[in-house]
Amino acid sequence: MTTRIVDHFDRRKRDWVAEAMRRLHADATRSADTHVFQFPLPAQWGIDLYVKDESVHPSGSLKHRMARALYTHALCTGWIDPDTHVFEASSGSTAVSEAYFAKLLGLKFTAVVPKSTSTEKQELIKSFGGEVRHPGEDGDIEKEAARLAAEHPNGHFMDQFTYAERAYDYRDDHNLAATIFRQIAEERHPEPKWIVTGAGTGGTTGTIGRYLRYTRRQTRVCVVDPENSAFFPNWVRNEGRPKHRWPKPDQWITGKPSRIEGIGRPAVEPSFLPAVIDRMISVPDAASIAAMRVLLDALRHRAGPSTGTNLWGALRIIAEMLADGEQGSVVMLMCDQGERYLSSYYNDAWVRDTLRLDPAPYRTAIDGFLSTGRWHEPGAAAVPRPSQPAGG
Questions:
Q1: Angle formed by the axes of helices 11-31 and 63-77, to 10°?
Q2: What is the span of the domain harbouring residue 108?
Q3: What is the model's pLDDT at position 385?
Q4: pLDDT of amino acid 286
Q5: Distance CA 277, CA 306 (A)
Q6: Which candidate, 314, 327, 392, places its Cα nearest to that of 47?
Q7: Does some domain include residue 92?
Q8: Which of 56, 66, 77, 117 is the most exposed place for a label (fewest CB within 10 A)?
Q9: Using omega within 30 degrees of 0 as the cis cutoff, is the peptide bond preceding 359 cis?
Q10: Residues where N6-(pyridoxal phosphate)lysine occurs (predicted)?
Q11: What is the DSSP secondary structure assignment for residue 381, as one 8-state letter?
């Protein structure tokens, strides 16, 4: 038998991949360190709240980092070449960011988004040259994106919900967690007690949690979750079980879409890593909307509803620290630009008539806490405060 050699090397495609990676690296260098703002809290509390503003990325959201990581992973794995048509399933922000990178690399891009995705987000996808499609009657955006990619002669389904956690490099010195610690290194509490974030795919949470272990830090991870999401109830339900062995096929599925765009899922996604999470907080949707508006008043920055979810969770933790006489810092993420939600979450009539929510009691609760130090959310018992404030 003679030696057989089959060579599939294509110089054009390899050169294109090299140029594509150069463009991705250049983008990472330009936008690695987004700003960190300090949310105003009473000085006598001895507690600092920092807001890492991921909304200033070129594509306008936290998902910019993930989209770049997904393209990097797909290019280095050999799934994308200059003729590839990329497909993705997304509630909006990931699709916007992936459309941005598709344009940067000269690729065709199609996003399958829920019909409820804001008009502003759909227009942003189109502004980067992407196509917007909606799912079938079952509303399954992942199934539709996978079908379209399979039917296309050179389609690739990016599949953020599967590949987000493995695409992110938690050991890289330019990941989100690493930049946070560099940017608050000169603050009075440079190692935060908590980092608070939500979960859509779980990729950001996984990166932060892994980085904390890799760098031997004591900072803890809190994941906030909206109503109707499967992450929180499954995390509670599986407490005590080996967390690397679930989600199981028999996991509890809510069957309902999240009302807070960008976070929350009806089922636990493969990229969600429960073992790196120290705490989860289930946040009322009305509280998320109230908190996003508090942030606008406090920082003059308009952010989306998932940022409101983060702020509510961060303030809930700060209330406990205050009650325990504990000082330190908390970091939360500003996820995307609020201009994407002017016709929805910032529209009182839309919130009332479409979501049937009333944020007012939760706004009153936040304002009351910031002025008195006493936490009391609607329908729940108050978190006590010591007679002497921490540091006072």
A1: 160
A2: 63-165
A3: 44
A4: 97
A5: 18
A6: 327
A7: yes
A8: 77
A9: no
A10: 63
A11: P
